[in-house]
Amino acid sequence: MNYLAHAYLSFNNTDVLAGNMISDYVKGKTQYNYPDKIQVGIKLHRAIDDFTDTHACTKDLKEFFRPAYRLYAGAFADVVYDYFLANDNIHFSSPEALSLFAQNTYALLNKNIVLFPPPFAKIFPWMYTQNWLYNYRFNEGMQKSFGGLARRASYINETETAYNIFIKHKSEMQTCYNHFFTELKNFAAYKLQVLLTA
Predict the structure, then answer these.
(1) Domain boundaries in the chain?
(2) How far, in Å, CA of 40 to CA of 17, rounded?
(3) Which of 49, 78, 79, 113 is a good FRET partner for 171, with 20 to 30 A between their CA atoms?
(4) CB neighbour burial string for 165-176, b if at least 16 within 10 angstroms, e if fewer
(5) 49-89 pLDDT per residue, tens
């Protein structure tokens, strides 16, 4: 899962959202330096990633990218899931609903901005000024997101191949998403309740 899904699966909880979004930038025992509910978000993020990575639909989705990108196939699959979520009329009834969600997410994140680890603090201004969460719904947004993977990953030299794979196999990838996301949402909601009551 990429940024949009992690934001959506924070279920409008401000501190859980912050933890969920910064989790990839929080290493080891440093997670315990954060307030309790932000720690919950960090743990929720990791549980979501584990569920996603081991799901049969994700394994099928990765196979489209694996010949060209091998170990990085999963990173491209995560971005693809955000595209389909952004265009999912069940979860976002209209483009306006997605836009409102994106703007609300940036506002909620801003409440915890002083707690962001430096790498996330660096990208957050780009996230909201370029409206990443909303722009996942467009092919052009996918191109940019794939390009962002190349900038962050040492062994990805180009992403045009990934974009062409996405365009060519979009309908099959949609099927993977359709069979997966409701299960993930139900899992995340249950996991969050467990973490909040632990």
Answers:
(1) 3-26+35-197
(2) 9
(3) 49
(4) bbeebeeebeeb
(5) 999 999 999 999 999 999 999 989 999 999 999 999 999 99
